[in-house]
Design brief:
GO molecular function, one term: acyltransferase activity, transferring groups other than amino-acyl groups
Organism: Marinagarivorans cellulosilyticus
Keywords: Membrane, Transmembrane, Transmembrane helix
Distance between the termini: 19 Å
Protein name: Glucans biosynthesis protein C
Oligomer: single chain
Number of helices: 14
Order of helices and strands: HHHHHHHHHHHHHH
Shape: globular
Structural class: mainly alpha
InterPro entries: Acyl_transf_3_dom, Glucan_succinyl_AcylTrfase
Largest sheet: none
Mean pLDDT: 89
Length: 410
C-alpha cells in the first residue's frame, strides 16, 4: 500500500492512543452487557442463565449499547488492519491476523464451549435454575430419545467477533491484491453525505432482515447479513486510516449527531417489544427474515441510525477526550482482549448462582460485573501478561512502543 496518510497533523510515528482506549472500552462494555443480559425482559426465555426477576430498564440500556458497540469495534479493527497492511504488507498482515486472531479462536473456542456445556449441565442437575433453556436440558437428559435429531448446532459463542475478523482479514488481503488504487473510493466514503446518509440507509436495509434487537451471528456458517453489516464498518475503518480527516468531518456535525441520536434512542426504546420472545418462536425463525411491519421498519431505521451515529460520536469523543496514555489505561487496554475472551463463563456461573437470590437486581449486576472484571484482570496479571499466552494475544512487550502496536489483536 502506498496511499498517503492524510492525518490531523499526526505523523505515522504517533500512537493512536484514543483508538487503543476506545477499543478496550468497546470490549469491556461487552462484559457489562453480558452481565446485565440475565435481567432483560426480551431475552428472558432465550438465555439459559436468565434471572428469575427482570427489569425493562436493563433492556433499554443494553439494547442501545448493542446497536453500536460491535459496529464501533469493527470500525476500529478496519483502521488497524489497514495500518498493518501499509506498514508490513499483505503477507505479513495475514500472518499477524492468523497468529493474533485465528489461532486464539482455535485454541480457546473448544475450552470455552466445554465450559458453557459443563455449566449448563451443572445448573440443570445441581442448581435451582428454572429457565426454558435449562428445562430443555433437563428434559433432554431425562428423555434423550425424544431429543434425537434436535440437537442445537455448534456455536462460535461470544468469539464470533474473532471468527468474523478472520474472514474480514482474508477479504481485505484479497482486495489489496486485486484492487491497486482506491483513492477515489476513499475520497467518496469520507464525504459527509455518504457517512451520515448513505451508510445509515445501507445499514437500515441490512437491519430489516434481522429481528430487533439483532442476534449475534454465532453460527459457523458465515452470514452474508453479518458480513454486510459489520463489513461496512470494517471498510469505513479501513478508509479512515488513509483519510483521517474523517474525525474532522464528524467534529463539524457532532451536535446534529448527538441530537438525532438522542431522539432516535428514545424512539428505539419506546418501540422495543415489552414481552419476552418465546424460545420456540426464536428457534423457528433462526436465519429467517422477520415480517416487515411498520414497527419493525421503524426499529430497523432506529438501529441503523444509532449504529452509525453513536459509533461516530464515540470516535470523536475518544479523539477529543481520551487521546492520552498512562500506565493504567495501557494496562486496561492490553488486558481487555484476554478479559473479553474468558469473561462469559464467569458471567454465566455467577448468573446461575444469583438466579433465585433475593437481592436487588442492581446489586446482583454490580457484583457479577465486578467479580468478572476482577477475575479477568487478576488472571491476566498472574497467568497471561508475561507468558506465551500474552505474547500470542498482544505480542511481546517492548520498552519502546511503535505508533500502533503491530501485534494488536484487532
Amino acid at each position: 500500500m502506498s496511499e498517503k496518510v492524510e492525518s490531523l497533523g499526526l505523523p505515522m510515528q504517533t500512537r493512536y492512543y484514543y483508538l487503543d482506549n476506545l477499543r478496550a472500552v468497546a470490549l469491556l462494555a461487552g462484559v457489562l452487557l453480558h452481565a446485565g443480559l440475565s435481567f432483560c425482559v426480551i431475552t428472558a426465555e432465550l438465555l439459559p442463565s436468565a434471572n428469575a426477576e427482570k427489569s425493562i430498564v436493563f433492556d433499554y440500556w443494553i439494547w442501545l449499547l448493542h446497536t453500536f458497540r460491535m459496529p464501533l469495534f469493527f470500525l476500529i479493527a478496519g483502521f488497524f488492519a489497514h495500518y498493518l497492511v501499509s506498514k508490513k504488507g499483505v503477507k505479513q498482515f495475514l500472518r499477524n491476523r492468523m497468529l493474533r486472531v485465528a489461532l486464539p479462536f482455535v485454541i480457546f473456542w473448544p475450552l470455552l464451549f466445554a465450559a458453557f456445556v459443563g455449566l449448563m449441565f451443572y445448573a440443570a442437575t445441581h442448581m435451582n435454575v428454572d429457565t426454558p433453556v435449562i428445562n430443555m436440558v433437563k428434559f433432554a437428559m431425562e428423555y434423550p430419545d425424544q431429543m434425537e435429531g434436535k440437537e442445537p448446532p455448534l456455536s462460535t459463542t461470544h468469539l464470533w467477533f474473532i471468527y468474523y475478523l478472520s474472514i474480514f482479514s482474508l477479504l481485505a488481503a484479497l482486495c489489496c491484491l486485486l484492487i491497486k488504487k482506491g483513492e477515489r473510493i476513499y475520497d467518496w466514503v469520507v464525504q459527509p453525505w455518504v457517512l451520515l446518509l448513505v451508510l445509515p440507509v445501507f445499514i437500515t436495509g441490512v437491519m430489516t432482515q434481522h429481528s430487533i434487537p439483532h442476534p449475534a451471528p454465532e453460527s459457523f456458517i458465515p452470514s452474508l447479513k453479518a458480513i454486510a453489516f459489520y463489513g461496512a464498518f470494517y471498510f469505513v475503518g479501513w478508509v479512515f486510516f488513509v483519510r483521517q480527516n474523517l474525525v474532522d468531518v464528524i467534529a463539524k456535525f457532532w451536535p446534529y449527531l448527538a441530537v438525532v441520536s438522542l431522539i432516535v434512542a428514545l424512539l428505539f426504546c419506546f418501540l422495543l417489544p415489552p414481552n419476552s420472545v418465546p424460545l420456540e418462536q426464536a428457534m423457528a425463525f433462526v436465519g429467517k427474515a422477520p415480517e416487515l411491519t411498520a414497527v419493525h421498519f421503524a426499529l430497523s431505521v432506529s438501529a441503523g441510525v444509532l449504529a452509525c451515529y453513536l459509533s461516530f460520536l464515540c470516535l470523536w469523543a475518544a479523539f477529543r477526550f481520551a487521546n492520552k496514555n498512562n500506565a493504567l489505561l495501557r494496562y486496561l487496554s492490553d488486558g481487555s482482549y484476554w478479559v473479553y475472551i474468558v469473561h462469559l463463563p464467569i458471567v454465566f456461573a455467577l448468573q446461575y448462582y444469583f438466579h433465585d437470590k433475593d437481592l436487588p437486581l442492581i446489586s446482583e449486576f454490580f457484583i457479577i460485573s465486578a467479580v468478572t472484571l476482577g477475575t479477568g484482570y487478576l488472571s491476566y496479571a498472574l497467568l497471561v501478561r508475561r507468558t506465551p499466552i500474552g505474547w500470542l494475544l498482544n505480542g511481546r512487550k517492548k520498552k519502546v512502543r511503535s505508533a500502533v502496536d503491530e501485534d494488536c489483536p484487532q
